[in-house]
Amino acid sequence: MYLVESKGGAIFCMLLALFFLGTWPALLTFLERRGRLPQHTYLDYTITNLLAAVIIAFTFGEIGESTAEKPNFLIQLSQVNWPSVLFAMAGGVVLSLGNLSTQYAWAFVGLSVTEVITASITVVIGTTLNYFLDDRINKAEILFPGVGCFLIAVCLASGLHASNAKDNKAKLSALEFCKIDESRDSKVPLSKETKSIAVGKDLENAVEKTEKAKVGTADFLLEIENRRSIKVFGKSTFVGLGITFFAGLCFSLFSPAFNLATNDQWDTLKEGVPHLSVYTAFFWFSVSCFVIAVILNVSFLYHPVLNLPRSSFKDYLSDWNGRQWALLAGLLCGFGNGLQFMGGQAAGYAAADAVQALPLVSTFWGVLLFGEYRRSSRRTYILLNSMLFMFIVAVGVLMASSGHRK
């Protein structure tokens, strides 16, 4: 099998993973804002997420001659290594719960803030655990100041969300009309520009509207609210932040669990049984991620949360609206996680947590594609720039702490 052994190769894997892991959330957010049910999107996503792990296992995991110390993927499947397999599967479970939570958090808090908070919690908790599990191969005097910078970024992100929510409330407070969304039994305010649109008509395709709403305006916010699948107007800010922090706690545990699966620091394997390779561990990791995602999302089809409409498995199979983007998101996430683990096995999983810089990529997509923070207050812009600056500093410091696993 192929192993990444050089520090340069590990950094390349982490940079590529950074782009993949920062892009796939934008695709799922895009679909939610166009009205596709998150249950449908996530079921598509999880299929290709597992497919990515299978592709990695049968390519990188089968390259070269197999040895007793470093057996290839198929050989390891028949070995008695269940303690390590269970660690890998536990990591997949918490990652699946975290990813499932974030697709609801994106609607409430926004793509940028959600990714910053979850990534920062992951670094604060997960990196600390990985540092001790990796026998301290990373430089503590550099690593932990970087962790502190991530913690500051969390505080700034929370302030940014509160400021942006206040800005949006001020924009909407000037609206004079209200429309009833008959399918949801919920009230949605209408502006003077949009009051002529008929009840129940898709604002994206409405012919009555002569010109498109400007990004960042109240009309723009209303168009998104009427079109999106998760309705957020009137919901408490703490709902979104609560979901976000729960997702962050889940994310903080999957990397340490994977670390235990591949390096067996607790000596759970019998003598003579080789450690799981990254590719075998990632396969079992993705299998458990797939199983949990299918169970939860199929149940959410018939028993939806957050006042989403009820669906069915038949409706899911016939829903082809944007399916290609959901499938692409699963591939990006799968290959991104695989590259992160390949780099972490070489340079230390604590340093590999530098891929949590993914909010830098997500914020770019959030501003470019979704108009986040457009026409906001000066205070919001200051908080946004401060958050991104602190995040860049934190990532740079974390990368500088990279070690080399012997």
From TrEMBL:
UniProt-listed InterPro entries: UPS_plant, Ureide_permease
Localization, UniProt: Membrane
Protein's UniProt keywords contain Ribosomal protein: no
Top-level taxonomic group: Eukaryota
Topology of this chain in the membrane: Multi-pass membrane protein
Transmembrane segments: 6-30, 42-60, 80-98, 105-130, 142-162, 237-261, 281-305, 325-343, 349-370, 382-401
GO molecular function terms listed in the Swiss-Prot or TrEMBL record: allantoin:proton symporter activity; ATP binding; uracil:monoatomic cation symporter activity
Main location: membrane
A single Gene Ontology CC term: membrane
Sorted UniProt keywords: ATP-binding, Membrane, Nucleotide-binding, Transmembrane, Transmembrane helix, Transport
Family: Belongs to the plant ureide permease (TC 2.A.7.19) family.
Protein name (record): Ureide permease 1-like
Source organism of the structure: Daucus carota subsp. sativus (Carrot)
Lineage: Eukaryota, Viridiplantae, Streptophyta, Embryophyta, Tracheophyta
